[in-house]
Amino acid sequence: MKMTSSAGTMITRNNAIQRASTLKQNASLEKSPTQTVTTQTNHFFAALCGYIKLELLKGDTKLNHFALKSKLYLRAIQSAFAALRELNPAQLIA
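^ thats the sequence. predicted structure below, dont judge the formating
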């Protein structure tokens, strides 16, 4: 089964399912602790923005979503440890 998107390209059903799955897994759409409609809407919008940013990075870097998330987490951890070293340099030097 094929559908035509607004851009005129053909999208297979599997591709659409894969994109929805990627949106849920990589943009934390499933992990919503929200209970009211307003917070659910805000969470959905933030997850969609995150997914769009991942797609843009994916095009620029030629990496998949999982590799991008891995690199982002690694950089975040490195940045956190650098900030921690600046706060307390005497105790962290081995």
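The helical segments are 13-26, 37-61, 65-87, 89-92.
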